[in-house]
Structure formats: C-alpha cells, structure tokens
Amino acid sequence: MLGARDYSKLINDKLIQIHSRKRRIQDVDNHTIDAEEAIQCTRLSYYERRERLDDSVPEVVKSFLKETFRSKLDSTSAEYKVEKLTLVVDPAFIVDDVIVNFSVVSDLPDKVTPADLLYTNACLFALDTDLGVIVYVTPNGEYTQFFVGKSNRMFEHVIRRARILSMLLEEQKTPSIEPSYSCLSCKYYDRCFPQQRDTNQNLLEGLFGTRK
Q: Which domains does the chain have, with CATH numbers?
C-alpha cells in the first residue's frame, strides 16, 4: 500500500469489474445452454444465471487466461439443437476435422478430467466430427495430450443435464444439491451448506471431559 491507497485492492476491483462487463449473459433465453453449464454442478449454473456472486480474483484471472487462449487460437462457437433446446460449444480450434481443446493446469494429469472429456465429446457432436484432442498445458510450457472419440452415451448425459437446467431456469426452481469435493472451493458453498461455527469449548468438554 502506497500512502493511504490500497493499490492492490484497486487493481483487483478493476479486474473483477472488467470481467463482469465481458461475461456473456444468457438470462433472456432459458433454452440456450452452454455445454459447460450442463456439465458442471446444475445448482452452480443456476446461481450463475439467477443469483450470481462476483468471482474472486483467481477465478477472474483463470477466465482471462482461457479467453486469451481462445482468442489467439481463433475459436468459433457451434450449436446443437434438440427440439427447443440449443446446446452451445466453443472449442479452441479445429484442424483437419479434429477438435482441439486446451486446459491450463498447475500439474500435468495422468488422466482426462471427466468435465473436459464430456465437453470435448459434446464439441464432436455439435461440429459433426469424430475425433478430439485435449491438451493440458502448464504455465512453464510443459504439455500432454489425450485423444477423445465420439460417445453417444456421454453426449446423451450432457443433453439430459442441459434439459434439466433449462427446465429449472424456466420454472425458477433451485436445483438439488450435488455434493462433491469441488463444493469446498465453490463461491456458493454457504448457500448450499449454511452453518454456524461455535468457538465455545463447552461442547467438547462435555463430550471428552475437562482437561486437567
């Protein structure tokens, strides 16, 4: 902090402000669902549209990195329509009919994450092609890649989740909780798992006896 001004806070606030302005808003159309919304926790996707909280600075930076990757790689969005539902995908790029998606990670994984697998498979259906590649990249330039083939079963799972989210948005009904380890880092944790922390030691003393 220089003088009386907290420049770190000013920069963080500006990043969040820019991110909020750039974020794509789809609230008007409950029947258009991004594949990422369908794949992640339905309750998280619902809150992001209906009762959204601002992202933290690390989430904003991660989003900027993802947007930079896509803009530099000339990504293009595509749609897959099923009756009233429109599923939107936005792959990094396409080369020789092969879908390529990138993910920035701190450590290279040994396996594909389920979310990346489902998303790339959805891209294959939306763009009517048979092969995808997921490339994991670390900040220091290391990378590994995994090939993804087309799976009707996985795509049906994404479409089913997209339909459920679309219906809940239309009816303005909050989805059921989907508990997982990712809940611990979710900004909506307190909405799903409200709790009161009591620092009073009397309870522990009653359970285990008073320490002498």
A: 28-171 (3.90.320.10)
